[in-house]
Specification:
By secondary structure, the protein is α/β, with parallel strands linked by helices. The protein has eight helices and five strands; from the N terminus they run H-E-H-E-H-H-E-H-E-H-H-E-H. Strands 2-3-1-4-5 form a five-stranded parallel beta sheet, with helices on both faces. The relative contact order is 0.19. Bound molecules: adenosine-5'-diphosphate (ADP). It holds the Pfam family APS_kinase. Pathway: Sulfur metabolism; hydrogen sulfide biosynthesis; sulfite from sulfate: step 2/3.
Length: 206
């Protein structure tokens, strides 16, 4: 261990990635309520952590009750909710961590804002990977583990995505998971293959 500490102002992204031995990027999960976003993101986070890769998942529980507890569900607040999540994910990614976000994020324009935050005019954009967790609304409604569709159908939840509010599907997501046709393990494997193929993580030696 070196005892002489060298310090200089500001680390570059590549220096930080080199020292942390991993790249930072954001995996942005989007899809209907009960499409499987949290389940897949949680399984993937665990898998990445087991590989020794720093990863952290942002979801409704750790964001809505903390950072964004001042925000409601009106259109302006929903936009601000997503913008802040985008900013936080970007900071995690910039710190050479893998940020995973699991929010419905139903609007193309909002997801574009989050994506654009990761771009840079200095040519060192942070990778932003949109993961579309896609299931037909009927399947989501049949799974409905929290009974939210039932409540929405009964008119107890206004502006419920897929029922009484739109879901704007991604046009060209980096990863498209057909989550009515695969197991959670297969979905994780599909995402891992993408990350290996794009050289975002290094495949462990067999
Ligand atoms: P979201 O975070 O999108 O609201 P969840 O992750 O809570 O959705 O998943 C909704 C339900 O679907 C859960 O009960 C979960 O166990 C189930 N589920 C998720 N992925 C799959 C899958 N590939 N096959 C079968 N059931 C799944």
């Amino acid at each position: 261990m070196a005892t002489n500490i060298t310090w200089h102002e500001g680390l570059s992204r590549s220096e930080r990635n080199g020292l942390r031995k991993q790249k930072g990027f954001t995996l942005w999960f989007t899809g209907l309520s009960a499409s499987g976003k949290s389940t897949i993101a949680t399984a993937l986070e665990q898998h990445l952590l087991h590989l020794g890769l720093a990863s952290y998942r942002l979801d409704g529980d750790n964001v809505r009750f903390g950072l964004n507890k001042d925000l409601g569900f009106g259109e302006k607040d929903r936009n601000e909710n997503i913008r802040r999540i985008g900013e936080v994910a970007k900071l995690f990614a910039d710190s050479s961590t893998i940020a995973l976000t699991s929010f419905i994020s139903p609007y193309i324009a909002d997801r574009k804002i989050a994506r654009d935050l990761h771009a840079s005019d200095k040519g060192d954009a942070l990778p932003f990977i949109e993961v579309f967790v896609d299931i037909p609304v009927e399947v989501a409604e049949a799974r409905d583990p929290k009974g939210l569709y039932k409540k929405a159908r009964a008119g107890e939840i206004p502006n419920f995505t897929g029922i009484s509010a739109p879901y704007e599907a991604p046009v060209e997501p980096e990863i498209h998971v057909r989550n009515d046709q695969v197991t959670v393990e297969e979905a994780v494997a599909q995402i891992m293959e993408y990350l290996y193929a794009k050289d975002l993580i290094v495949k462990p030696a067999a």
